[in-house]
Amino acid sequence: QVQLVESGGGLVQPGGSLRLSCAASGIIFSIFAMDWYRQAPGKQRELVAAISRDGSTNYADSVKGRFTASRDNAKSTVYLQMNSLKPEDTAVYYCNVRATTYWGKGTLVTVSS
Protein backbone atom coordinates (compact mmCIF):
# COMPACT_ATOMS: atom_id res chain seq x y z
CA GLN A 1 0.00 0.00 0.00
CA VAL A 2 1.41 3.33 -1.06
CA GLN A 3 1.50 6.04 1.59
CA LEU A 4 2.71 9.62 1.42
CA VAL A 5 2.92 11.58 4.65
CA GLU A 6 3.63 15.30 4.61
CA SER A 7 4.91 17.17 7.64
CA GLY A 8 6.53 20.45 8.60
CA GLY A 9 3.71 22.87 8.05
CA GLY A 10 2.71 25.53 10.52
CA LEU A 11 2.29 29.21 11.19
CA VAL A 12 5.13 31.49 10.14
CA GLN A 13 5.55 35.23 9.80
CA PRO A 14 6.10 36.84 6.41
CA GLY A 15 9.73 36.53 5.44
CA GLY A 16 10.14 33.37 7.45
CA SER A 17 11.07 29.86 6.40
CA LEU A 18 9.67 26.36 6.67
CA ARG A 19 10.87 22.98 5.50
CA LEU A 20 8.26 20.48 4.43
CA SER A 21 8.89 16.76 4.24
CA CYS A 22 7.04 14.02 2.43
CA ALA A 23 7.86 10.47 3.46
CA ALA A 24 6.88 7.74 1.03
CA SER A 25 6.34 4.04 1.61
CA GLY A 26 5.09 1.18 -0.50
CA ILE A 27 6.90 2.30 -3.66
CA ILE A 28 10.40 2.05 -5.07
CA PHE A 29 10.90 5.72 -4.35
CA SER A 30 14.07 6.24 -6.36
CA ILE A 31 12.45 5.48 -9.70
CA PHE A 32 9.68 8.05 -9.38
CA ALA A 33 9.58 11.75 -9.98
CA MET A 34 7.82 13.65 -7.22
CA ASP A 35 5.82 16.84 -7.25
CA TRP A 36 4.73 19.38 -4.66
CA TYR A 37 1.34 21.04 -5.08
CA ARG A 38 -0.57 23.52 -3.00
CA GLN A 39 -4.17 24.55 -2.69
CA ALA A 40 -5.16 27.85 -1.19
CA PRO A 41 -8.68 28.45 0.13
CA GLY A 42 -11.11 28.92 -2.74
CA LYS A 43 -8.47 28.20 -5.37
CA GLN A 44 -7.50 25.28 -7.55
CA ARG A 45 -4.62 23.03 -6.68
CA GLU A 46 -1.44 24.22 -8.39
CA LEU A 47 1.94 22.69 -9.08
CA VAL A 48 4.64 24.38 -7.02
CA ALA A 49 7.77 22.29 -7.54
CA ALA A 50 8.80 19.18 -9.41
CA ILE A 51 11.79 16.98 -8.80
CA SER A 52 12.81 14.24 -11.19
CA ARG A 53 14.48 10.93 -10.45
CA ASP A 54 17.89 12.45 -11.05
CA GLY A 55 17.17 15.38 -8.75
CA SER A 56 16.61 17.99 -11.42
CA THR A 57 13.97 20.51 -10.43
CA ASN A 58 11.44 22.91 -11.86
CA TYR A 59 9.40 25.55 -10.10
CA ALA A 60 6.34 27.66 -10.57
CA ASP A 61 7.24 31.25 -11.37
CA SER A 62 5.58 32.40 -8.15
CA VAL A 63 8.07 30.49 -5.98
CA LYS A 64 11.18 30.48 -8.14
CA GLY A 65 14.19 31.67 -6.18
CA ARG A 66 12.43 31.16 -2.84
CA PHE A 67 11.56 27.46 -2.75
CA THR A 68 13.92 24.54 -3.20
CA ALA A 69 12.90 20.92 -3.68
CA SER A 70 15.24 18.07 -2.85
CA ARG A 71 15.09 14.36 -2.27
CA ASP A 72 16.79 11.70 -0.19
CA ASN A 73 16.25 8.36 -1.88
CA ALA A 74 17.79 6.48 1.05
CA LYS A 75 15.02 7.86 3.25
CA SER A 76 12.31 7.76 0.56
CA THR A 77 11.65 11.39 1.36
CA VAL A 78 11.22 14.54 -0.65
CA TYR A 79 11.63 18.00 0.85
CA LEU A 80 10.48 21.51 0.09
CA GLN A 81 12.54 24.29 1.62
CA MET A 82 10.49 27.47 1.61
CA ASN A 83 12.19 30.78 2.26
CA SER A 84 11.03 34.40 2.16
CA LEU A 85 7.48 33.25 2.69
CA LYS A 86 4.64 35.53 1.73
CA PRO A 87 1.00 35.60 2.85
CA GLU A 88 0.02 34.38 -0.61
CA ASP A 89 1.97 31.17 0.06
CA THR A 90 -0.69 30.21 2.59
CA ALA A 91 -2.14 26.89 1.46
CA VAL A 92 -2.32 23.19 2.11
CA TYR A 93 0.77 21.62 0.56
CA TYR A 94 0.61 18.14 -0.93
CA CYS A 95 3.15 15.77 -2.39
CA ASN A 96 2.35 13.52 -5.32
CA VAL A 97 4.02 10.66 -7.09
CA ARG A 98 4.08 12.13 -10.56
CA ALA A 99 1.50 10.85 -13.02
CA THR A 100 -0.20 8.70 -10.39
CA THR A 101 -3.14 9.00 -8.07
CA TYR A 102 -0.92 8.73 -5.02
CA TRP A 103 -1.29 11.82 -2.86
CA GLY A 104 -0.58 12.67 0.73
CA LYS A 105 -3.18 14.26 2.99
CA GLY A 106 -1.36 17.55 2.99
CA THR A 107 0.19 19.89 5.53
CA LEU A 108 -1.11 23.39 6.21
CA VAL A 109 1.20 26.37 5.82
CA THR A 110 -0.06 29.68 7.12
CA VAL A 111 1.95 32.84 6.53
CA SER A 112 0.67 35.65 8.68
CA SER A 113 1.82 38.29 11.10
Tell me the structural class. Answer: mainly beta
Ranges where pLDDT stays below 50 over 5 or more residues in a row are none
The overall strand count is: 10
Radius of gyration: 13 Å
Tally of helical segments: 0
User: Largest sheet, described in full?
Assistant: 6 strands, mixed
What percent of residues adopt helix (DSSP H or I)? Answer: under 10%
Cα separation of the termini:
40 Å
Strand order of the largest sheet: 2-10-9-4-5-6
Mean residue pLDDT: 96
Structural features, described:
The protein has 113 residues and is mainly β. Helices cover 0% and strands 49% of the residues. The protein has no helices and ten strands. The strands form two sheets. It has a six-stranded mixed beta sheet, with no helix packed on it. The protein has a four-stranded antiparallel beta sheet with strand order 1-3-8-7, with no helix packed on it. Strand 5 and strand 6 form a beta hairpin. It is globular and about 40 Å long. The mean pLDDT is 96.
